[in-house]
Write a structure and sequence with these properties.
The chain has 415 residues and is mainly alpha-helical. Among the domains are: 8-50, no CATH class; 77-197, no CATH class; 301-409, no CATH class. It is 50% helix and 0% strand. The protein contains 14 helices and no strands. The chain starts with 40 loop residues before the first helix and ends in a 6-residue tail after the last helix. Residues 177-282 form the No apical meristem-associated C-terminal domain. This is No apical meristem-associated C-terminal domain-containing protein. Residues 1-22, 209-302 are annotated as: Disordered. Residues 209-232 have a biased composition (Polar residues).
Length: 415
């Protein structure tokens, strides 16, 4: 604008008035403003009614592409049940346990879910994790409502009425209905969501009993002060004073109990020393006055074999292949191959009849005991209650099992 030349050189002081009213002209009183020359349609290529760089040029409406958002997939009841079962199976795995990272934990849950989903939709790890936290939060809130309803249960109230009261309490507290009752029924017996029965009906409120016999919990109890207004009411004992009084009364009893326990312990030590001395004398003399008896425990070996066979090796076993793999550390056909090979290699792993005519331990019992000890690193007598095999026999089975497997499969699996 500094190189601008006045289009009318005859009159350079007063600028000419343009014929186009759309052109803005500055005030002549401001010397810093210069007039804008008149523009016509021939020089600019557009109408003089519209100034350049006007917002009126190109005001056609632009078409916007509207992209509809995809609705979030809602979990069905069957998907929720499968998710809860997968979470319980992975979290209660005795081999891996919960000593793992969160990412690995949820990857295992997603793998278990997608493995058994059947016709259900495939879900990602993030989707299952989000849905589980939603279910867990709602179920925990309903557990609190159910506990309140159970505490207020009256005589003659059925379980249906308790559930109705729990739903009403949940709707009043949360402002919505509880539609995950099937999830609560799957989780209510687990340790995290279980309601301890001892806490129901108990109250932690400390009741104060006055000297007159009136209690703070029973306001209807009449005291002697109401009948004899002339005698002043005695002030009840304070809480700290009651504690001191109770401790003072307990000290003599505790001292006497300690003395009795000490006397009993000393008697036992003296008796043990006498028995040890007598045993030494018997060993030196070579004669013993005590009859030697061998205790025999009838463990029911046949029942243990039948239970083990029906649980894992029958045509319709109680436990599935997945549970067998988790508990034995191998597949069923691999275990049976080892049992057959050991039975052909060593007579110890064959079922024989003892001197009394009873059947001995089966190869399944002996191999199961050895495999459990190797897989879990457990004690020798840990499987006694289930397999019906004592500690000494378990150790012997383990030693023969290891030697037999090394001899039979050592060359095949040497690499």
């Amino acid at each position: 604008m500094q190189n601008y030349q006045n289009p009318n050189p005859q009159n350079s002081q007063i600028p000419p008035v343009p014929t186009n009213p759309a052109i803005f002209l500055p005030s002549p009183n401001n010397p810093n403003m210069y007039p804008i020359p008149q523009m016509n349609s021939n020089s600019m290529g557009f109408s003089t009614q519209v100034p350049p760089f006007s917002t009126q040029v190109g005001t056609e409406k632009e078409e916007r592409v509207v992209v509809k958002k995809r609705s979030r997939e809602q979990f069905t009841r069957e998907e929720d049940i499968l998710l809860i079962q997968s979470w319980l199976n992975v979290s209660k795995d005795p081999i891996v346990g919960v000593d793992q990272k969160a990412e690995s934990f949820w990857l295992r849950i997603a793998a278990s879910y997608n493995q058994y989903r059947g016709q259900l939709r495939e879900k990602l790890r993030g989707q299952l994790k989000c849905r589980w936290h939603r279910i867990n939060g709602m179920v925990q809130k309903f557990v609190g409502c159910y506990k309140i309803a159970l505490k207020g249960k009256k005589s003659g109230t059925s379980e249906t009425n308790v559930m109705a009261n729990a739903h009403a309490i949940f709707a009043q507290d949360q402002g919505t209905t509880f539609n995950l009752e099937y999830a609560w029924r799957l989780l209510k017996d687990e340790a995290k969501w279980r309601i301890v029965e001892e806490s129901i009906g108990s109250s932690a409120k400390i009741t104060k009993t006055y000297a007159s016999g009136a209690s703070s919990e029973n306001p209807d109890t009449t005291s002697s002060y109401e009948f004899n207004s002339s005698s002043p009411m005695e002030r009840p004992m304070g809480q700290k004073a009651a504690k001191r009084k109770g401790k003072a009364s307990e000290i003599p009893n505790a001292t006497q109990d300690a003395k009795n326990k000490r006397a009993i312990t000393m008697d036992r030590l003296a008796q043990a020393k006498e028995d040890e001395l007598e045993l030494r004398n018997e060993r030196r003399s070579g004669s013993s006055s005590r009859p030697k008896r061998r205790t025999t425990v009838d463990r029911g070996r046949e029942e243990g074999h039948n239970r083990l066979f029906n649980d894992y090796f029958s045509e319709n076993p109680v436990y599935t292949d997945v549970q067998f793999r988790r508990r034995f550390g191998m597949h069923r056909h691999v275990f049976l191959r080892i049992v057959d090979a050991l039975g052909n290699h060593d007579e110890y792993f064959q079922m024989r009849v003892d001197a009394t005519g009873k059947m001995g331990l089966s190869p399944l019992q002996k191999c199961t005991s050895a495999i459990r000890m190797l897989a879990y690193g457990s004690l020798a007598d840990l499987v006694d209650e289930y397999v019906r095999i004592d500690e000494i026999t378990s150790i012997e089975c383990l030693e023969r099992f290891v030697k037999g497997v090394n001899v039979i499969f050592g060359a095949e699996f040497k690499q």
